[in-house]
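Handout, section 4.2: multi-component inputs.
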Amino acid sequence: MQFDPFVIPFNIGLYFILIYSVVRSVRWFGNLSRPDKLRLQRGFFGRAFGQSLREIFMESLIHRKILKSNFRLGYMHMSLAFGWFLLILFGTLEADIFGEKHLNPPYKAIFFKFFNPEHGRQGFEAVYSFWMDLILAFILSGLLLAVIKRFSSGVVGMKRSTKLRPLDKVALTSLWLIFPSRLLAESFTSGAYGTGSFLTGSLGSLLAGLMPAQEIAYPFWWLYSLSLGAFFILLPLTRYMHIPTELFLIFARNSGITTGDKSGAFKEIQKYSCSSCGMCIDACQLSFSADITNIQGAYLLKGLRNNENVSDIAFNCLMCGRCDIKCPVGIELTPIRMISRRAGETEQVKSSILKEYLPDMIDNTPVKSNGKPSYSWLPEEEPGRAEVIYFAGCMTHLTPAVKNSMVRILNTARVNYIFMDSSGGACCGRPLMLAGQDREARELINFNSKIIWKTGAHTLVTSCPICYKVFRESYYLDVEVVHHSQFIRKLIDEESLRLNFLRKKVVYHTPCDLGRGSGVYEEPKDVLRHVTRLQKTDFEDEDSFCCGGSLGNLKISSHDKSRIAMDTAAALTRCKPDMLATSCPLCKKTLSAATETKVADIAEIVAEAIAPAPVKKKLTDPLSRIRETVRLP
Amino acid sequence: MDKFGFTILKERHIDYDANDKCIADYIASREPGFMLCIECGCCSATCTSGNFTRFSLRELQILIRRGENDLAREDISKCMLCGKCILVCPRGVNTRNVVTLAREAFQKNMNNAV
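Output:
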């Protein structure tokens, strides 16, 4: 039996973390709702299993998403994660093949060199040690990048690095110590016995020439074991909890579990899956346009993990969803933020150190409001019946040009429609939801739903992406909800609208709630391509910017808002278009204040392009030639 | 004074000693823009709720700043937070945050009372 007391810290840490991961996973599974449990079970024994394994390999180990967007950062993450995985895998194989017997305890593999110092002299053994040295060098190169990144994040192509709390720093130090201490321990041992490959061997022989390698190696083996043990023990309290949690998250997500709109086990899992890598900070417009760098997703989740009061963080966000797209772990940051905005969700909960290891699921019962419902004064409305309902929305009433253009388009296409809020109706409810007041929003939703039911319409057209999103997601309606850009495209396809081609260069700005929020990218661009020369920008589709005027942010000052709007407008008008097109009245309003270029809604452009109806010429009328407008070719 | 026929009408009377400015202070400390308001009334003119009732953000702002909270308490729940007022405000007051904070303040105040 090969044993040495220095392996004890490592063993304690390893068995602790293994048991702990199982306990936490069982608790998470127990806390899932019943349908989610069934989903996970079905996913585990179904196709989702293979998909998850593939995703774990590609994302958790190789870090494909980060590699694609930023090679140096991706290399850093990959070398640490994939390198460590390879080291464990081939270390275990090494112990199994070259060790004294098969099926060794884990410490034999990790400290293989200590127990088999004579290994690796010639033949296949030497090749194998060369391979192991190569893996170690791979990890160390990533570690070097990681250390440099802490001091100057620009080196790996990041603007900012996440600020850490003290415990995270302790864990980070122990993680950093693991690999150099392994290198030194192996080198000293190799030096003493004259073994080792290109890295440990040459460093070992160099060091052995300077000092007594045999005696110095032993403390380094202790350091190696201690840093591993400390890292494992601290892991549940720090951001490194993401390592075991992410596996669970990938299985849960591939089984079809989503965050939804309630606090639950899946939100808990996502909370611990965040590695604070800082990709969301770099993606955030508040960070690079307005210098607000303490509210991004990583900080929200960090606050939630530490049971801090996150209300300031939760409300200071444009809810544009850029971070959701960029998150390499695929955490649904915006839905989590929506949940954090609800009343009673942001209260601080004190906990002891024991509680931190096994945190309770926080049971958040929303604070009951005083008094009766706030919108009971809304009048009963009796709309007529029609096939199509047009809902302009509050913001569209502030930009009458959009509203009037839509009316003109609907009339020209001879659509049987009702203008639901022609004299200014109630709000759709999304602004209240964004402010975390779902109960109040429900009243407005009920009010609007009643009107829509009464009309018996089959299609609801809205001009505002904010309304569009809430009509689709939070209303229980038996109508097809379309944004006006989709409806116009349908009219064009049906040939109900005859449009001229405007000779104008146009750039399209995708509104957040329509694009990333609802996945409508192509229809508005199709309409624009039909009537204008649509130009490409660097910020298409998922990469599009927020105009800054978003109703999602309750805290931002008007100064910071206009800074974001300026940056966005400048980025979009770089190729000097004749017109900046958008499909959101709020974006139009915000952007037109920030640029000299004309900003127009798609509806306005289409209304401008409407071809005049063919006039039946009375050949007998001599004045007909004069009345006809002269058109240049 | 009685001889001149001047008297203080109760409804026109602003009693600064009795008025409670805690709500105004609560809002102003968290949203400094609250003090930028020049009471022009653009917000009231564009208001979605104001379309249905005589809810007026301008009035609310005045009442809260004066400290006449009882009059404001009822009305504050009528706002739909739709955000049109922010876009029309010439002073760039973050009106949605003002209303949210006012609601929060009333809520806290009431909780303390009970």
